[in-house]
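[job 0412] stage=complex_fold ligand=MTE status=START
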Amino acid sequence: MAHLLRILRPSDARTRDITDLGLHLRRREFLTGAAAIAGAALIPACSRDEGLAVAASSESGAPDAVTPKDKATEYNNFYEFGTDKTDPARHAGSLRTRPWTIAVEGEVAKPGMIAIETVLTAFPRQERVYRLRCVEAWSMVIPWLGFPLGDFLKRFEPTSRAKFVQFETLVDPAQMPGQKRNVLEWPYREGLRIDEAMHPLALFATGMYGADLPNQNGAPLRLVVPWKYGFKSIKSIVKVRLVEQRPYTTWAASAPDEYGFYANVNPDVDHPRWSQRRERRIGDFAKRPTLPFNGYADEVAPLYAGMDLRKNF
Ligand SMILES: Nc1nc2c(c(=O)[nH]1)N[C@H]1C(S)=C(S)[C@@H](COP(=O)(O)O)O[C@H]1N2
Ligand SMILES: [Mo]
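[job 0412] stage=complex_fold status=DONE, emitting structure tokens
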């Protein structure tokens, strides 16, 4: 991993935005002689819970600023609470996030239930500043608090037959009023190939902006896969199942011509109803180019070597 930078404490990221980090990246880029600022930097964990950041600046050289917190917490997709962007912030207060347990099952040597309190103590949180690119062609830059998904999975000892991971959101229409309508098949389900899930950029997030996750952003535990369209980043997870075959995933099942299993951000593959070439960063007026793998190609493109990414969209 080429570009390294460190935020010493999670709170630093709120005061020093990615503008500074972008300059820092560019300096490093200059020093290492690399051609372009390609995307994310991953910092090896050197000490416990010191707050690590993965930041990026855009290909044009213009630094990416962190999206204001009120935008990231008031403009959401979380259909369990309604389909309007403002529904989750207005209705997610009814979600009870304690007690909360996550079931881990399937192709693992040690299946079991893990309480969210155990998750919070067992896996030290790091800060990761990632771009989030929704398939609807808007984007944000969000400072998450979380830990590598791979660290979580390893604790349950996946077997050699674990080729994919499936995730499920809670189903409870009393807490999640959007589930009274059949806009999607509940529970919301998502999945990754095991090598994608083990990639160090794949994150299990329990917080954002230096605090615990607001309910509307997927409390108490959600997935964040920054190189894929936002719908892969499933919220409020209650089940993780390791499986041998590619699992059912909600959006790919509901509209297979529009949403693929891989859903890697790809400006060259249009959605049937709109272009994916450009995106609107929430808060910006002008659109900006969408980057292959959302700017994380250096890190993740090798996962897809030899694959036809138009077919496997
Ligand atoms: N359970 C569940 N997870 C979900 C969704 C959803 O409707 N239900 N929406 C997805 C979509 S389309 C996006 S873009 C992101 C949005 O995350 P954010 O609201 O935290 O920005 O959550 C994803 N995770
Ligand atoms: Mo999305």
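The two ends are 26 Å apart (CA to CA).
[job 0412] exit 0
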